Amino acid sequence: MAYRETEKMRQRKAEARRRIVECTYECVAEGGFRSARITRIAGLAGVATGTIYRHFESREDLFAEIFRTATQKEVDKVAEALDTPGDATTRLENALRQFAERALRGPMMAWSLIAEPVDPKLEEERLVYRRAYAEHFERAIREGIAEGCIPDHDARQSSTCLVGAIAESLVGPLSPTLASQNSLTETDKNRLVDSIVRFCVQGLTGSRR
Amino acid sequence: MAYRETEKMRQRKAEARRRIVECTYECVAEGGFRSARITRIAGLAGVATGTIYRHFESREDLFAEIFRTATQKEVDKVAEALDTPGDATTRLENALRQFAERALRGPMMAWSLIAEPVDPKLEEERLVYRRAYAEHFERAIREGIAEGCIPDHDARQSSTCLVGAIAESLVGPLSPTLASQNSLTETDKNRLVDSIVRFCVQGLTGSRR
């Protein structure tokens, strides 16, 4: 009987944690990390604010978990897109295109993950994940060099150029303060994605797209 | 007599402020914003820590001033390099090269300005300055399009690709935690700068460099 109660409590705790994470995610996707207040999250999750701090040491730790989960999903998507059949340039093009399109479909979350000014702890996570993206790109670039569709060059270095170019060129369009986030038409978005991809692929191959 | 004393005090205050700024700069250039402690700065400047807070509301405000002054200098250098004679591609190439070379010559300061995880206030300054770099690049790209040395495309968008590509590709080499900062030979540095510039110019022109 004692055992069953403990099991039930464990389940209840896990369920509360899941709801906290889910509601934090919603808050961030709606207004960024800055606007995700603990009281608001607690209200949405139907728990006391104290409960949040039983699951997470601090607001920063909760945010770090959201950041990691959401970013890892994007990293996995890039890895998947790079893992499809086709020559390396096409795979890189698809991965970059998909990354930008996904960001523009969830602009506030993408802004929060890519560029929102956040505390140094989260900023450090960002640096780690940027390395993760770069490593996936680097592998594909090396494959492209081996296949002959990309001229021989320092793949490690150009992989970071890709990460920087795509992230930075999305900052403006995603920025909620620049107010362009909601004013982009589908045509604008397509044009934006095309031009990011063109710059990146030209940068790698040195051939006009 | 009262007037003269006030004037003297004003001069002494200005001199203390100048020393505080100078010593903060030194600390940041040596170990980044994180390691620039107020007690250390006060010691170097020969003032009480309280004096620092009479000149700056907070550590963040002092850091913001250092950040702005140091970054504005780099923005001006880019603007200057873009303003020399020659075709736009060459001017862009020179400006990018100079930016990267200067960063590699003062790696800790460059790391602090470009990528060190800092508090959100400073991070917002970073976004502002990234726009400033992009605007200078954009103007030169437009000139290149008008001159015919750069194919017609969205200059605003590609200017942000340049900013992202050059900044991100310097993060690894400059990072003090990755410990590569001091292990780069002159040949490594030249190769790195060449490959960043090549990626960027190829991205803009679509012609092999």
Automatic annotation (TrEMBL), chains A, B:
GO molecular function: DNA-binding transcription factor activity; transcription cis-regulatory region binding
InterPro entries listed in its UniProt record: Homeodomain-like_sf, HTH-type_TetR-like_transc_reg, HTH_TetR, Tet_transcr_reg_TetR-rel_C_sf
Domain HTH tetR-type: residue ranges: 14-74
PROSITE patterns recorded: HTH_TETR_2
UniProt KW keywords: DNA-binding
Known DNA-binding region: 37-56
PANTHER family linked to this entry: HTH-TYPE TRANSCRIPTIONAL REGULATOR PKSA, HTH-TYPE TRANSCRIPTIONAL REGULATOR RUTR
Protein's name in the database: TetR family transcriptional regulator
Classification lineage: Bacteria, Pseudomonadati, Pseudomonadota, Gammaproteobacteria, Pseudomonadales
